[in-house]
Amino acid sequence: xxxxxxxxxxxxxxxxxxxxxxxxxxxxxxxxxxxxxxxxxxxxxxxxxxxxxxxxxxxxxxxxxxxxxxxxxxxxxxxxxxxxxxxxxxxxxxxxxxxxxxxxxxxxxxxxxxxxxxxxxxxxxxxxxxxxxxxxxxxxxxxxxxxxxxxxxxxxxxxxxxxxxxxxxxxxxxxxxxxxxxxxxxxxxxxxxxxxxxxxxxxxxxxxxxxxxxxxxxxxxxxxxxxxxxxxxxxxxxxxxxxxxxxxxxxxxxxxxxxxxxxxxxxxxxxxxxxxxxxxxxxxxxxxxxxxxxxxxxxxxxxx
Length: 304
Fold this sequence. Notes:
The protein is of the alpha/beta class. Helices cover 34% and strands 19% of the residues. It contains ten helices and 14 strands. It has a six-stranded mixed sheet with strand order 4-5-6-7-8-12, with helices on both faces. The chain has a five-stranded mixed sheet with strand order 9-10-11-13-14. Strand 6, helix 6 (148-159) and strand 7 form a beta-alpha-beta unit. It starts with 7 loop residues before the first helix and ends in a 15-residue tail after the last strand.
């Protein structure tokens, strides 16, 4: 009797591995709602039936799994066995698995975006695109193992970007970033410490009720700004900028404004966690510390 994966969770797991090539066993939790013991038994069954096989601490497709995906025309990426490329593939898989069940974020890996015939594209450093509530963010990763040469190659890569104007850089140590190197004149460049907490916060990047924040702190005395260096203003002496993450482009625009208008000041609204990093760049700004968790709509409806 031919065995097939018998429910949506198992099928989703197999399809993910077919696309991303690898899946850490630690990330299988993102695919199942059942107890750890029970879903491990289900994975063991898939391994037994040769849909999957274990390779060290990861799962990859086995022979039957490859034929199964081809039979049902699922997206299939042949396994890349290049050891030099493996850490990158494992990171891409890790990021994809983290957002697998997200209602607001979807992740497209770089290898599904690239034209394999174009060296200038395949040589690039981005790991993929995060779609957050319909807004695309070209995404990079800088790990603790990446040296300064690699960090600068990310800078050069972003400099030649033409399609995307919103960038996310996930970095293990945010202190490695020199603001002067990471400002390009784009819409946003978000430099984010790569933690589970911050990845979860990205789910709500475009779900913050900023108008309520402004209403609570400024009442009806300010308006949406027409300027590019602030978000709200009274067009007199209030220039208000909103930060959910560290945005090098916004910081650079504020710096330029203050340098050209020495008698003006800027109001910064951000979380307590973000204040110290921004204050290093804008020490003379006025800071309003807000618990932004209170202004996030985490129950926003998503329609298929």
